[in-house]
Every structure is written in C-alpha cells, then in structure tokens.
C-alpha cells in the first residue's frame, strides 16, 4: 500500500487511556474557549467528539487555521502526559494533535484535509480504543488498538467504527521529512 503505512502494532496505550479516563471534561472543551472560533457546523458536519492537545491558531480574524502555521498547546496538553510523552519519544517534532472519538457505527465521511497548513505535514493515527475501518483513496485497513499508522491525508479518507465500543484515535501532524516513519 502506498497511501496507508502501518508503522507499528501492539503499542501499549493503557497510560494514554488512563489519562483520558481521568479527564473526561476535556472532550469538546474547545467549543467553550474564549477567543476561539469554530467552523460553521452546518457545513463542516462531524459526529466525532474532539479533544485537542495542540490547537491551530490564526494571526488575524480573516484567517482560517487550515491556512495558518500557528500552533499552541491547549489546556488539556498538560493533563495528557502519556500521549505527549509518546509523541516526544517517537517524533522529533509534532504540531496539531488531538483525540477523535467515534461512537459504535459512527463515521467520519470522506474528506481531504485542505489548506496551506497541510501541504508540509504528514498525518498519523495512534489507535487508542476500538476497532475501525480506515479508507484512503482505494486502500482500506482494519485498525486495532495499539496501531500507529501514517496516511496520505491529501487524498480522500474516511473512518468507520466497526466495533462495539467508542473508537478513540490520537491524530497528529508532523512536519514532512524524509526521516519520518
């Protein structure tokens, strides 16, 4: 496969899951942040719950985060030390980072990550909980907890929770480099 690459399986994610269990208030908290703006929910429809650790920023009100390189740690960054520790151990640098939760049967519809920000980033998932089907272009994999993979987010991609528990994935961006896994 050229658009999905499994980097490693069998990763122990229990400490990451423990941080999530200990901080349930962090899910979707970004909607209540002052000085933040969420894209139109009638256009950008999702059933996924979000827990952002590193969030995109803008430098002026007419700018969108997908066209900005700006990133700052969100308040939850400091409570999810196991996830941040994993990223620091395995990647030299990482940018926007967050957890996505899909309920059983939930789907993230086919989409492409667009904007200037994504042109220079590689996108990864670390599966934390649940089993899901992931499709990129015409390639498909079944993802189990503890799986780290890269995918080409410049192509249409989608996810479907095919398990019977919430699917949780740590989704993160790394500046593109030939040294990336």
**What portion of residues is helical?**
10-25%
**Which structural class matches the secondary elements?**
mainly beta
| Average pLDDT over all residues | 91
Q: Give Rg in angstroms.
A: 15 Å
Q: What is the overall shape?
A: globular
User: Spans with pLDDT under 50 lasting ≥5 residues?
Assistant: 38-45
Number of helices: 2
Instruction: State the strand order across the main sheet.
Output: 1-9-6-11-4-2-3
Total DSSP E strands: 11
Structural notes for this entry:
The protein has 181 residues and is mainly β. 10% of the residues lie in helices and 35% in strands. The protein has helices at 14-22, 81-90, and strands spanning 4-8, 49-56, 71-73, 97-102, 107-111, 121-129, 132-136, 139-143, 148-151, 157-161, 167-175. The strands form two sheets. Strands 1-9-6-11-4-2-3 form a seven-stranded antiparallel sheet, covered by helices on one side. It has a four-stranded antiparallel sheet with strand order 5-10-7-8, with no helix packed on it. β7 and β8 form a beta hairpin. The chain is globular, with a radius of gyration of 15 Å. The model is unreliable at 38-45 (pLDDT under 50).
What are the key terms here?
181 residues, mainly beta, seven-stranded antiparallel sheet, 2 helices, 10% helix, 35% strand, globular
How would you sum up this structure in a few lines?
With 181 residues, the chain is mainly β. It has helices spanning 14-22, 81-90, and strands spanning 4-8, 49-56, 71-73, 97-102, 107-111, 121-129, 132-136, 139-143, 148-151, 157-161, 167-175.
Write the layout of secondary structure elements.
Blueprint: E1 4-8, H1 14-22, E2 49-56, E3 71-73, H2 81-90, E4 97-102, E5 107-111, E6 121-129, E7 132-136, E8 139-143, E9 148-151, E10 157-161, E11 167-175
Antiparallel strand pairs: 1-9, 2-3, 2-4, 4-11, 5-10, 6-9, 6-11, 7-8, 7-10
């Amino acid at each position: 496969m050229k658009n999905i690459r499994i980097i490693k399986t069998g990763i122990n994610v229990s400490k990451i899951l423990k941080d999530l269990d200990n901080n349930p208030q962090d899910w979707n908290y970004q909607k209540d942040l002052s000085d933040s703006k969420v894209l139109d929910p009638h256009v950008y429809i999702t059933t996924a719950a979000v827990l952002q650790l590193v969030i995109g920023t803008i430098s002026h009100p007419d700018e969108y985060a997908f066209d900005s390189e700006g990133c700052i740690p969100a308040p939850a960054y400091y409570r999810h030390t196991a996830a941040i520790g994993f990223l620091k151990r395995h990647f030299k640098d990482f940018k926007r980072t967050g957890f996505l939760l899909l309920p059983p049967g939930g789907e993230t519809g086919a989409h492409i990550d667009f904007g200037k920000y994504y042109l220079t980033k590689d996108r990864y998932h670390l599966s934390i909980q649940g089993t899901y089907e992931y499709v990129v272009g015409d390639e498909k994999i079944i993802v189990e907890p503890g799986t780290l993979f890269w995918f080409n987010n410049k192509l249409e991609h989608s996810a479907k929770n095919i398990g019977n528990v919430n699917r949780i994935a740590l989704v993160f961006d790394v500046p593109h480099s030939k040294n990336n896994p």
